[in-house]
Amino acid sequence: MIKEAILELKDLSHVYVNDAGAALAVDHINLVVHKGEFISLVGPSGCGKTTILNIIAGLIQPTHGELRVMGEKINSPTPKLGYMQQQDYLFPWLSIQKNAMLGLHIRNQRSKLQAERTNQLLLELGLEDTSHKYPHQLSGGMRQRVALARTLITDPEILLLDEPFSALDLHIKMQLEELVQSTLDRMGKTAVLVTHDLAEAVAISDRIIVLGRNPGHIRKIVTIPRDLRSVGPIEARKHPKYQSYFEEIWNELEEEMERGGNE
Ligand code: ADP
Ligand code: MG
User: Fold this and answer.
1) Is the pTM of this model over 0.90?
2) 29 alpha carbon to ligand 1 midpoint, in Å?
3) Protein residues placing their CB within 5 Å of the ion ligand 2
4) Non-local CB neighbours of 57 within 8 Å, separated by 6+ positions
5) pLDDT tens digit string along 59-95?
C-alpha cells in the first residue's frame, strides 16, 4: 500500500518576538503525516505543542521552514484543516445547532441542507435532542462533542485537536476517545492530537511524537503496532503490548525532565 503524505513539516522553526526579547520556541521540526493516520504530540509543558499546531493551522507563520498540506505550500488557514483549540468554548447564547454550525456560518455556507447535516452529525456523535438546547444544559463531555461536531461539519481532511479531553472524567474521556477515533477512521480523516496523557496517546494513536524542550524539538517517534491500534482506545489499554509502549514513552519523558531540570 502506498502511503499518501497529507501533511509535511519541513525543518520548521519558530521564534517568538515580544518586549521580553526573542525566544526560539521550536527548532528543526521534520514530520510527514500520512492520510488516515492518527498522530499524537506529547511532551512537557512549554515544549511547543500548541505552537506546532498553530503553525499547521496556518495561524502563525514559521520563522523558518515549510508546511505542505496535500502537497500544497500553506501559509494561511485552509478549509482542509479543522482546529479544535485548547479552550474551544461554545457561545452560551447560541443553541447547540447554531454553535455546531459556526464554521459554516463564517464561510457563508448556512442552509437548510447544512442544518440537516448538522443535526445528523450531532446524532452520530450521540447528541440526540440537543439541537435546540443551550450549552449550559449539557454536561462537559457533551459540550466537547458539540465542539467536535463544529470542527467536523466543515469536512476538513485533517483535524488538529489540542487537549480536547483533558478536563473530563476518565470514564467520559475514554468514551470520547473511542468516539473520536472511530468517527475519524470511518470518515478517513487524519488527526494530530496534543495530549499530556501518555495512556491516551498510546491507546489512540498510530504514531506518537515525543517532544523535548528548550527549544522544542522531536526526541523520538514511536510507532504503535497495527494490532494494538486497531482494537480501539478502551480495549487497547488492556492489550498485552500496551504496557511496554507506555513505558517506552514514559522513560523517554523522564529522561527529558532530568535533562531539562525540574519545572
Ligand atoms: P505547549 O503547548 O507545549 O505547552 P507552547 O507552544 O504553548 O507549548 O509554548 C512553547 C514555548 O513558546 C514556551 O516557552 C512558551 O512560553 C512560548 N510561547 C508560546 N506562545 C508565545 C507567545 N505568543 N509569545 C511568546 N512566547 C510564547
Ligand atoms: Mg499547549
Assistant:
1) yes
2) 15
3) 49-50
4) 77, 81, 83, 160
5) 999 999 999 999 999 888 899 999 998 777 899 999 9
